[in-house]
Amino acid sequence: MTPTAAQIETLLxxxxxxxxxxxxxxxxxxxxxxxLAGPAPDAGLSRIGRPPVADQLSPDVIAQVRAExxxxxxxxxxxxxxxxxxxxxxxxxxxxxxxLRERALRRKPLPRSILTRVCQxxxxxxxxxxxxxxxxxxxxxxxxxDNTYIDADGARxxxxxxxxxxxxxMTSNIPFWREGxxxxxxxxxxxxxxxxxxxxxxxxxxxxxxxxxHTIWANPAQSYNxxxxxxxxxxxxxxxxxxxxxxxxxxxxxxxxGVVKPLRSLGLHVEFAQSAKGKRIEMMxxxxxTLMSRHFRYRGIDLGRLRGEFQESNKRWLDIRAxxxxxxxxGLPHISEVSAAIADAFADYNALPSxxxxxxxxxxDEAWERDMGRAAPLAxxxxxxxxxxxxxxxxxxxxxxxxxCRFKTFGEAVWWYGNAELFSHLxxxxxxRLRFDVADPDRAAVYSLETAARKVKTxxxxxxxxxxxxxxxxxxxxxxxVIPPGEFLGHAELFQRAPSFVMSAWAEHRxxxxxxxxxxxxxxxxxxxxxxxxxxxxxxxxGNSTRIEGAHAAxxxxxxxxxxxxxxxxxxxxxxxxxxxxxxxxxxxxxxxxPAAPSPxxxxxxxxxxxxxxxxxxxxxxxxx
Length: 625
Description:
Layout (H helix, E strand, L loop, with lengths): L4 H9 L4 H8 L3 H9 L21 H13 L10 H10 L6 H8 L6 H8 L4 H7 L2 H7 L8 E3 L5 E3 L5 E8 L4 E4 L6 H6 L1 E4 L2 E7 L4 E8 L8 H14 L6 E4 L7 H9 L3 E4 L7 H14 L17 H11 L13 H17 L12 H11 L8 H6 L3 E6 L5 E5 L5 E6 L1 H7 L4 E7 L2 E9 L10 H7 L22 E8 L15 H23 L2 E4 L5 E5 L15 H7 L14 E5 L16 H9 L2 H4 L4
Parallel strand pairs: 3-8, 8-9
Antiparallel strand pairs: 1-2, 3-6, 4-5, 6-7, 10-13, 11-12, 12-15, 13-14, 14-15, 16-17, 17-18
Helix pairs in contact: 2-3, 4-5, 5-6, 8-9, 13-15, 18-20
């Protein structure tokens, strides 16, 4: 038995020599010298026997075998590396040493060094990375989050209800049927109804885990988009108020400029979650899906959240989409029934108490009411801010005095918007952004986008020429600056298309003509001056003309009833720009004597006769041939 260094040192301290100590310990003097010298710096098992077989393999071979072993993993368990080595021995024998190649082909146990080298990388985290970056983020290390935030000064503050909103989408597990007419869909072509699943877009409060609002997107032609997100935000901010501090989104549609820029224009801080673990609303969706499906699971139509979770339901769903089974006969509910069930699920979720770390026995509704009583109420959207969240946005150049908007939100459509006074002074080619709601398209908000030096206007110049801009709230110090991109300029009205032929007394047939006259009158003032814009002159084709000075003439009302004539004449004093105080409206008739023209008529003082001369008699306009 080899003595220890401590035993030898004890004997040597008693005055014995090394030779005497060796005899006392029953070993040779060389053994005593070797033990006292200690192990060599490079001593180890590697110096004993043959080198490990794993050292004969290159790092890329080890990595390939490890990756193939992970790819063959089933049910969370990895197979022995012998199988990947056997496959490599068959297809790439030149990459393995001869001895190892023979052992792998004969399926003999591999050397322990190889098993150790390969298996040390077969961890659960490696298996998650093999499945992809998104899966790894959801199943590996994630930083725990608390209910605080870091303010602009770097201080840590508690999050209260209403401070931050978080938004996301989920697909409902409950399919439904709705009316449809798409002949390319097999089910619709055979049964006349379309099967579908709803995308639920929701906004929740981060501090109290309470759902604030939701909307259902069931457009079969496309997934949810910027339109649906802005529509949701406008409804939520209008009903519950804006968050005090900010929002948290995921990437994709939510991170687009069409969503982020309007929110930042409202003064909100916007952050983006890098994974589902960064959004509390994902955890809330799990419980919400359970509440949504409780009314339909017994009917066998719950598809589940994971692929193949309910095999019978998924098989029936595939048959329905292929047109083999009538959705109504298969028990699918109508979209209205599913919509009501989703609304009930949101209400039930907000009313359920939770014993978690955040709510501590309260329900989300109770926590919301508690925090609303302790902090300042949430601000509602102003009229100007609400226009910023209008879901439809079109960026166009003015042409022919109108803004032509094309969009495909609910099928391809083309709409025109006009504001004669504003657009005539901005001029053709001026870039603008229009925001409106397809569901209520009568008005649109107009924002400047022009950056060209030859087309930009100053605020003061536009205010001098368009009196309606006085409502924009520009201060005297801002009037000298040019209008920046994104500046709100006013509103435009929907411009209806006129029919090509009119065979009846259609009341709307003069609107396009009136808009054109007003647009040209505003344009005329640009080069004739303000006084030229306040003069309207009409000719009767016989050499006679009538001038109305001191105010803008009223828009043409040719063909209106005589009872409206007095109101039309009186309105000449009320249209903008208004004449100076005390300035009378002068109506002057000018006659021109020519051989071909009849004698000018005498002065007419009564309103009815003046109206007939200016606009013609209504019965003459609509007289039957």
